[in-house]
Specification:
InterPro entries: F-box_dom. The protein has 459 residues and is α/β, with parallel strands linked by helices. The chain contains 16 helices and 13 strands. It has two domains: 39 residues; 398 residues.
Length: 459
C-alpha cells in the first residue's frame, strides 16, 4: 500500500463509507493520510451540543481542518426538538457558525433546514404540523450565512458552491435585497436549491392555492438566479411539489452564459418554450438531469386561463365553468424531446431521466433524490406523462385517466374527461437509446428490468 500513488489512495478512500474510512486510518501512515482526507472532507455542524463540540474539535486541529472541503450546516438537528421545542440560534451555535469559514480549503457550503414549514399567515396555527423552524428563524440563518460569505478573506472567496435544502418558498426582503446576498451569488459557480412548500394535511389539494409558491416562483428568476447568470456553471433546482405550470416558473428572460450542468426535480413541461430554453444553452451545456419531470399531456383548469394556457387566477380559482380555452392538450412527446436534445445539445456528455429516491424525504431528513442526482438510474416511468386536473385531490397532478377515477363524475359531472395517456413507449425508449448512444453513455442493465429502459409503477 505504501507504494501506491497518493492520488490513487485518496480516490480509493473517497469511495468508502465513513466507518470503513475510519478503520483505514489505522492501517499505515500513507493510507491513514488518504483516509483522513476523505473522512474529514465533509463536516457537519448542527445546533446540537455534541455536533458543536465535534465541529470545534475539528476546526481546532490543523491537520483535520486542512482536509475540510465542504461544511453542511444542518439547523434541523436540535436537542430541544425531542421535547417538541422550536428552533433557536443559541450563542454557542452562532459562535461555531461564524467559525465555519476558517477552514483554509473550504470550497462549498450546504445549508439544511427542516423539511416542514408554514407560511407567514399560518404560523402558530397548525401546531400539529411540527414546524420547528418559523420564518423568522430561517431568515436569521440566511442573513447570518450571507453575511459570513461576503467576506474579503481569501478562504471565503474560494467558496464557489452553495446548496440550500428545504429553502422555504418565501423571499424575505431583508435577504434578497441585501448587498451580501447579491455579492455572494455573483461569485458562485454551483447553486443548488431544494424548495420546500407548506402542506395542508387536512386537504392537500388546497396547498397549491396558497399564495407563497406562486409569488416565490415568479420572483425566483429575478432574485436567486439573476445575479448568477454570468458566472454559474452548475444549477440544480428541485421542489418538493410540482413546479413549472402551477405554480408557473418562467425562465425565458434568464440566460446563463457558462452553464455546463442543469438539473430539475419535480419540474413539469407544458410549453415548447421550456425545451427551447434548455437548448438555448447549447454552446456550454454538458450535463442534463430530469428527475421526476413529467410532460403534462392534458390540462383541465376550472377557471380562466391566460393567452398561453396558464391559470389566470392561480391563487383564488373561481371554479368557473369550462369555456373551451381552459381544457387543452400538450402534444409534445418524450421521443420528440430526446431527438431535439440529441441534435440541439452538441456538447452534451451525460443525460439522465428517471426518478430519484424521493421516498427517502421524510422528516427530519432530506431526500436522497436531491443529493444523488448525478447517479440517478436512467429509466422511463409511466408517470413521465401526467395530466393536470384542477378539480381533484389530494393532488391535481395525476397519471390516471378520468374513467379510472370512480368518484370523478360524482363530484365533477360537467367536467370533460382527460385525454388518453400517450401510448408511445417503444418510440420513447428507442429515441432515448439513440440519445445515450450519441453521447457515449452506456445503458446499465437493471436487476429487475434487464436492459429495458421502461419501468413499471412509480419509484
Amino acid at each position: 500500500m505504501d507504494n501506491l500513488p497518493t492520488e490513487l489512495l485518496c480516490n480509493i478512500a473517497t469511495l468508502l463509507d465513513k466507518g470503513d474510512a475510519a478503520t483505514l486510518r489505522i492501517v499505515c501512515k500513507a493510507v491513514s493520510q488518504a483516509a483522513t482526507s476523505a473522512l474529514f472532507s465533509n463536516v457537519k455542524l448542527s445546533p446540537a451540543d455534541k455536533s458543536i463540540a465535534k465541529f470545534l474539535n475539528i476546526i481546532s486541529t490543523p491537520s483535520l481542518a486542512g482536509c475540510v472541503r465542504v461544511v453542511c450546516i444542518d439547523t434541523s438537528e436540535q436537542d430541544q426538538y425531542a421535547n417538541g421545542g422550536t428552533a433557536d440560534l443559541t450563542p454557542l451555535f452562532k459562535a461555531a457558525f461564524r467559525r465555519v469559514f476558517e477552514f483554509p480549503s473550504l470550497s462549498g457550503v450546504t445549508l439544511q433546514f427542516d423539511g416542514n414549514c408554514v407560511g407567514p399567515e399560518e404560523e402558530g396555527k397548525y401546531k400539529w404540523s411540527e414546524c420547528h423552524e418559523d420564518l423568522e428563524f430561517r431568515t436569521d440563518v440566511l442573513l447570518m450565512l450571507f453575511d459570513e460569505l461576503d467576506n474579503t478573506d481569501p478562504a471565503v472567496e474560494n467558496i464557489r458552491t452553495l446548496s440550500i435544502e428545504h429553502l422555504q418558498n418565501v423571499n424575505d426582503e431583508r435577504v434578497v435585497s441585501h448587498f451580501d446576498f447579491k455579492t455572494v451569488l455573483r461569485r458562485l459557480r454551483t447553486l443548488c436549491l431544494f424548495i420546500s412548500n407548506e402542506d395542508d394535511d387536512a386537504a392537500p389539494e388546497n396547498a397549491i392555492s396558497l399564495p407563497e409558491p406562486h409569488k416565490f416562483m415568479a420572483e425566483l428568476p429575478t432574485t436567486w438566479l439573476a445575479h448568477t447568470t454570468s458566472n454559474l456553471t452548475s444549477l440544480k433546482l428541485y421542489s418538493d411539489s410540482y413546479i413549472g405550470y402551477r405554480p408557473k416558473l418562467d425562465l425565458r428572460n434568464t440566460r446563463f452564459a457558462a452553464l455546463k450542468s442543469l438539473a430539475f426535480g419535480n419540474y413539469t413541461f407544458t410549453h415548447s418554450w421550456q425545451l427551447e430554453w434548455i437548448l438555448s444553452h447549447s454552446s456550454t451545456l454538458e450535463k442534463l438531469y430530469l428527475d421526476d419531470c413529467p410532460i403534462l399531456y392534458h390540462v383541465l383548469v376550472y377557471d380562466d386561463v391566460d393567452s398561453e394556457g396558464y391559470p389566470a387566477n392561480p391563487i383564488n380559482s373561481t371554479m368557473a365553468a369550462f369555456n373551451g380555452k381552459n381544457v387543452w392538450s400538450y402534444k409534445a412527446r418524450w421521443h420528440e424531446y430526446f431527438e431535439r436534445i440529441q441534435s440541439g445539445l452538441p456538447r452534451l456528455r451525460e443525460f439522465r431521466i428517471g426518478s430519484g429516491d424521493w421516498n427517502g424525504m421524510e422528516y427530519p431528513e432530506p431526500g436522497d433524490a436531491f443529493e444523488d442526482t448525478a447517479i440517478m438510474e436512467v429509466g422511463l416511468y409511466p408517470d413521465r406523462y401526467m395530466a393536470y386536473d384542477e378539480g381533484i385531490g389530494p393532488s391535481q397532478f395525476t397519471d390516471e385517466p378520468s374513467s379510472e377515477r370512480n368518484d370523478w363524475k360524482k363530484y365533477q359531472p360537467e367536467a370533460p374527461e382527460l385525454g388518453p395517456r400517450p401510448e408511445c413507449d417503444e418510440e420513447d425508449e428507442s429515441a432515448l437509446r439513440s440519445l445515450l448512444k450519441s453521447i457515449g453513455q452506456a445503458v446499465v442493465a437493471n436487476e429487475e428490468y434487464g436492459p429495458s429502459l421502461l419501468r413499471e409503477g412509480r419509484r
